[in-house]
Amino acid sequence: MCGIIGYIGNKSATPILVQGLRRLEYRGYDSAGVALLQDGAITRIRSIGKIDNLAEKLKGEKFSATSGIAHTRWATHGGVTEENAHPHAALGGKLVLVHNGIMENYREIKEELQKEGIECVSQTDTEVLAHLIGKYYAGNLRSAVQKALERVHGTYGIVAMHLDEPDRLVAARMGSPIVVGGQEDEYYIASDATPILPYTKKVIFLADGEIADVSRHGIEICTLTDKPVEKKVEELDWDENQAQLQGFPHFMLKEIFDQPQVFQDAIGGRYDLGDGTARLGGLNMNEEQMRSINRVIFIACGTASYAGMVGKYAFERLAGISAEVDVASEFRYRDPIIDEKTLVFVISQSGETADTLAALREAKRKGAFVRGIVNVVGSTIAREAEGGTYIHAGPELAVASTKAYTNMVAVMMLYALQFGRSRRVSHATGTRLLEAMREIPEKMKQILAQADTIKAMAEKYKEYEDMLFLGRGINYPVALEGSLKLKEISYIHSEAYPGGEMKHGAIALLSPNFPVLAIMTKNSLYDKMRSNIEEVKARGAKIILIATEGDERAKDLSDDVIFVPSTMELLEPLVNTVALQLFAYHVAVLLGKDVDRPRNLAKSVTVE
Ligand code: F6R
Asked: At a CB cut-off of 8 Å and minimum separation 6, what does 549 contact?
């Protein structure tokens, strides 16, 4: 959602802040702004719309500032206006603040401030917080921030700057990430590591209730009550190049094409072909504990929950353990039945999704084993889970998740195998699964090589207003994911159904104007799926099939076919989903949509 970047050092701050904002664009925003400290004043420049609008305003002005803060805003309190854009100011412009999160008690504090004669010019909760810090300011920004935050209910990731303390930025975190990094005489503060990555890979992640007091000489971390905190410096394993377009027109396409490589990063060193098993050290469970598990729950949101659904099939089939999937926003409020024999996997690309984090805490409270399957190193979910595995997908900057999904599935396959081998999976089956997994990158490449054919198909279907995705068994989550990709980036209405369920309702929608994309690969449910597609054909709907190479009968049944290489049934999502990602991508591009930053969506959903 919103993004923060702050800089204090000896270089010109403006280009660093603007470049930082650009690297935060992927999170989604509707306005942006900077505050620069120079020549005895703080200058604020803000603009609605794209960062280019802000950059345009900054052009031509001479800025000598070597410190400043900047923000991309995603409107929550108050509309998309320049006045509501951050940074917000207090004390007649001497104090400025950027803020991610939501201050729940801002109304009562606003009233209190109004009674004291302090008027807000914006509709935001952030401006109220800026004035509250201003109220407590008595020459020391850190203690003013501490005093103000003690009164705040809600979530925040903030950075504040005061004119009278030019060698200081003060950041704090409660529920909304803050990362600090730097060296010698220059330091950076941001809401995630992406804008810091060009300068350093060594970062500190603040925990809730911590303050970072940052100057040109170093970083001090303390609590809200001013107790010093020793922090671990984490080394990010992300390659800066991974956060570049590398010649691709969009991050989404680049990330789709990253998949063969990052899939290898997800599984490399995590299995033993000789023993036919996986070795995921982060599980942190001994054999006895592993055997005691009688239920697995996957908790996640959106695409990550569809990856979890594949995990459910894998756990039931390989490990023989009853498994379920729940979207985090439901799980956290449904009073789930959990005990010490339950293993909960929380799955998240960002590691910051508010609902997933709340569900994780709920599962921990109830005594389950809780493990994370997370992409962003050092993120809150990664830190709060009692173990787990990084999926090593590298930075995923397009809002629509692609490579994180396949790597989540890869890691869950390994977990299911590890549990399966300590229960009922034979050595031969384990080895076969691993060998098939090792072939996945080549199979992904075969689909990527069909990008032009898929684009031609997208051209044919782009004008339809609705679409139905069908899949069965392990390909039902693939249908869900394909449908989500299409709707979120092209805004075409689409739904996904299990093939066998269609006749219980959705079939009423079918007409020549309502195409169906069905996954009919050669697996144990092939004949069943085929019958479902016959039902579709009888209603005159256009049919696109995802079919296994060599299945010539698929052509007779459909208007268009994307042929995919065959693999073990459990692994099909790793291959079939890639075709659907490309389809959604090309439809959206052909329709002229902003593929990497679809409307209304944010990359990291840090509010409930
Ligand atoms: C869809 C998408 C979202 C996310 C969801 C969870 O393409 O990206 O549905 O999957 O918001 O996000 P994470 O995985 O960061 O918890």
From this structure: 563, 564, 565, 566
